[in-house]
Amino acid sequence: MASSVNGREVPVHGDKLGLIAIEPACEGSCQVDLVFGVTTEGWVCRALSTLVTLFALISLAVSGRSAVPQLSSGGSRLGAPTDPAPSI
After folding, report:
1. How far, CA to CA in Å, does 34 sit from each of 3, 19, 25?
2. Interval 5-14: pLDDT, tens
3. How many whole angstroms separate alpha carbon 5 and alpha carbon 30?
4. Is the residue at 11 inside a domain?
5. Is 54 a member of any domain?
C-alpha cells in the first residue's frame, strides 16, 4: 500500500483500531492519494481457498456415490435381511 500527498510519498501505517493512518504533513488543503492492491499473501489465500473448496466438493461427490445403496444379486438392498422370517 502506498500513499502520496500532493505528489509526495508519505508513510502509511495502521492505528490502534486497525484502521489506515496517513500522516500527510501538510497545512491547509491537501490531495491525498491512496493506492492499494492484493498482496502475495492475498493471492496465496485465494489459491488455498479454491483448492480446499474443490477438494471438499470432490470428497462430497465421491462419498455421495458410495453412500447409494447397491442391489445384491438376490435383488434386495445390501444390509437388508435376505432370509425370509421363520414361520410359526
Report:
1. 4, 13, 15
2. 878 888 888 8
3. 7
4. yes
5. no
Is residue 47 a part of any domain in this protein?
A: no
Q: Which residues contact 72 (CB under 8 A, 6 or more apart)?
A: 78, 82
Domain extent at residue 24 = 2-35
Instruction: Note whether residue 23 is domain-resident.
Output: yes
Tell me the Cα Rg of the chain.
32
- Structural domain tally of the chain? 1
The string of DSSP letters for 16-65 reads TTS-EEE-----SS--EEEE----HHHHHHHHHHHHHHHHHHHHHHHHHH
Q: What is the pLDDT of residues 26-65, one digit of tens each?
A: 888 888 888 878 889 999 999 999 999 999 999 988 887 6
Give Dmax over CA atoms of the chain in angstroms: 103
